[in-house]
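Ligand-bound model needed. shikimate-3-phosphate.
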Amino acid sequence: MYSLTVSPVRAVRGDLEVPGDKSISHRYVMLSALAPGRSVIEHLSSGADVAASVACLRALGAELVFEDLDVLAVTGGPWRQAAAPLDVVNSGTTMRLLAGLLAAHPFRSTLTGDESIQRRPMQRVIDPLTAMGAGISSRDGRAPLVIHGRHTLTAVTWTPPVPSAQVKSAVLLAGLFASGVTTVVETAATRDHTEKALPLFGLACEVNGLCVRVPGGQRPAAGPVRLRVPGDPSSAAVWAAAAASVPGSHVVIRGVSLNPRRVGFLDVLRRLGAEVTTSLDSLEGGEPVGSINVRYRDCSDTRIEPEEVPGLIDELPVLAACAAAGRRLEVSGAQELRVKESDRITALVTGLRALGVASEEQPDGFLINGRIRASGGRADAVGDHRLVMAFAIVGLAAGGPTHIDSAQSVAVSYPTFEADLRRLAR
Ligand code: S3P
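Prediction:
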């Protein structure tokens, strides 16, 4: 178990790029692995989650070769039955999106993963995929999932019971192979990277407000020869929150996806008192890409309302960390945090308290009162990458050193996190 130590800093300053977006990377590797011909994906997420998708796709017969640390050449084509269970390790996106695709492949596949993934709810993908005609057995709605795919699925109209881009994507990906038009009607807007990626591979997908439709009987065409993944806004959020936490700080994060369904955290940082601006530079694969510029200004209090939650679900831990530096923040309607890589409500509040931050757990959220400065101390990230980064931010503004246990998990989304932390800390 690796423990990370963070010392208080005078300021967080600098200019950086963050690794490629994890969600977009998963979608590009999966679609490239299905498409005939060779695609090259640049600036792929360097995290362990995407590496898990790459390994699973190799086991299904696609050829994926790294040309550089973050450049992947993919030669896709028809998939064949994997010789062994597919191990998604810690990656929920790999498990749920691949479940959708494997439901449409007429062979048996087993999807499994680590202890955390085996605790996470999978009934939410089992239900629609079963309604489409796949056979799926599980251990009480949890992994391992054994999928008996069908060559032709039946289209459905599905409303995910909780807003989830992973569930939406699993249904849409399966729907490509169904007979009829598959429709997902969301109750709240979630990230739309699947909808934006499908047309890059010649796949029709119609979006109308919260309603997304894919006609069945589609096969991916050869993708664009080169695809570039924009920087991950969830990783950018870490430095944005860090700059908003320590007086005198200023960071610029370049080349980041500014997809409106991912940058809800920017508005919360403004409400917490930071000076935040963005500039749009280009459109890559339908994704807006640009810079995020954050300066420490002052401290104010805010609430995050339930309707904001789907647009910043992964950023709640770092927003809590920012609030711990002098503000009051109340979050509600975020019960989904309890079924992420860890129970992020309990583990976040336990860790923050261990670092001397007044915080309270609620069934569907939490309350942070950062008026009294964090002392530092020792917090357990319980193998959850987002908590490692959140506790590190608290440590930057704390009164003494912060030790974060189980910090190796930061590699799930951001393996170069510690190097960037050392570079920006002044
Ligand atoms: C993701 C969707 C979200 C998010 C996860 C990545 C995706 O999960 O928390 O980190 O790539 O579609 P849910 O769909 O469970 O909300």
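The two ends are 27 Å apart (CA to CA).
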